[in-house]
Amino acid sequence: MIIVLMGVTGTGKTTVGRVLAADLGWTFRDGDDYHPAANIDKMRRGVPLNDDDRAPWLAALVRLIDETVARGENLVLACSALKHRYQEYLRHNLAAVRYVELWGPPELIQKRLASRTGHFMSPTLLSSQFAILEPPADAILVEVSGTPQEIASEIRRKLGV
Length: 161
Fold this sequence. Notes:
Shape: globular
Strand content: 5-15%
Number of helices: 7
């Protein structure tokens, strides 16, 4: 199974993903690590990425997913996957890919971003992410006001893993 933790910046995809993967004994990968340097520079400057910017990033994530499935392994992947076309591209008809949307009210997410340090993503991009967010119809929805362990436990319960 490939669990894609998706949603806007600041929802805890990386933090929850690490906890979830550790609980399951699975591999964790952060989609941010697959961005080209030019994308990171744009986001650091507060410039939203466009589809052309995201293309090499998404292609790298598809390779990761395909290699993981080919090895018969499980994976927790933190990846914003904001638009339907990105989600379908990543899934590419693989039943193994399951989406979990981490969700929180904008006020909570903004508060988290204000206190976050050391991340390249500019908090000014939050509104642009909410504007393009298109959760998949089959995504498991998990609210993020709890602790990372509580959120990971809810994901496990909802997915039956």
